[in-house]
Amino acid sequence: MLLNKRIIIGICGGIASYKAVDLVSKLQQAGALVDVILTEHAEDFVRPLTFSTMSHRPVYSDLWEASGRAAETHIALAEEAELLAIVPATANTIAKLAYGIADNMLTAVALATKAPLVLAPAMYRDMYTHPATQANLALLRERGACIIEPEVGRLASGAVGPGRLPTTEVLQGAISKALGRNGDLAHRLVVVTAGGTHEPIDPVRYVGNRSSGKMGYAIATEARDRGADVILISGPVALEAPYGVELRTVETALQMRDAVQSAITGADVLVMSAAVADFRPDTPAAQKLKKGNGGGEAQGFDAHGGLTLHLVRNPDILGELAGIPGSSETSHGQITDKGERSKRLVRVGFAAETNDIVTNAQSKLQAKHLDLLVANDVGRRDSGFGVETNKVIIFHATGQIEDLPVMPKTGVAATIWDRIVPLLSTT
Prior knowledge:
The protein is an alpha/beta fold. Helix content is about 30%, strand content about 20%.
């Protein structure tokens, strides 16, 4: 989504300016064309050569240089920019932007451009919480600026509070979200499930699987970058929530079912990429089970100390939604008791298989009335749980089968949304 995007990164004179070096580097590595503008005092913290080395492009700072070319340059930058992000944004520059002051290269470009504005405030906590700064941020937010809230933590002064510049991942996520605001999923609500579920045996142990959640999180991130409003329902994972995505955490299959049923009200798409446990212990123990002589038949232990678990089936979340019309069906939706037509829900399922992939996947596709089913062979070392790549086959309700090559999970996510978007034209 960042390939060949024209992005301006404005750097203000704050101690956090050194963190923007990594952001510029990451954006350039992602294929963006990054122009950096430094305020006068930003150069006291990080030299222009550092940013030009990372961006592979010239760095701009002096609006009043002797040749007069800067006057023309700032207009060209403003017109060509697809996004302006100011990282870090100091209280001084925020105040100038709020009141339309253009007394340096950065503020002149900001006043001249029609590109979306992203601000990442970073400063001493009392400067950030001051009513003047908060009023200026509120004014800019009303005008459409995206404000990335600072983190709470230890500041350069040694004080603790709000004012820390967020991580590069958060900053890049905000930039990607702003760039995708008019994408092919704009004004769509999508629900994505990710990760596995933990079905408790007792307060310490559980029945689960090896899902890392990486595929589902990549799908949610891609939807965000295409302009969607995203609800991500996640089982236990060791991943940070993507910026700009509403995260709802669950632990068990029953909790995930309830979360999905709640989230799909008004949704356009459900992508069920979570590896939901098929079974759960019938009656989890209230206290930790003790091995050896500590257990008894009442707790499932036999005479030799072995433990027997009685498992019951978990609900089939997608199966329970089979009655809701999808885009592959000719119905134009269900009629409610109020005479209103309900929205059709595009449903996408996942199948982690180790054998008979085609047969098993086609059976699930038909039984659950899905629009698409994405099957992957989790027995491969380059596909499935925990790795960064995936090898999938996409099964369409129309009968089409796409056998995709091994690719990064981010690439798989993009391909899946490329297949979903045409289905939305029928909803």
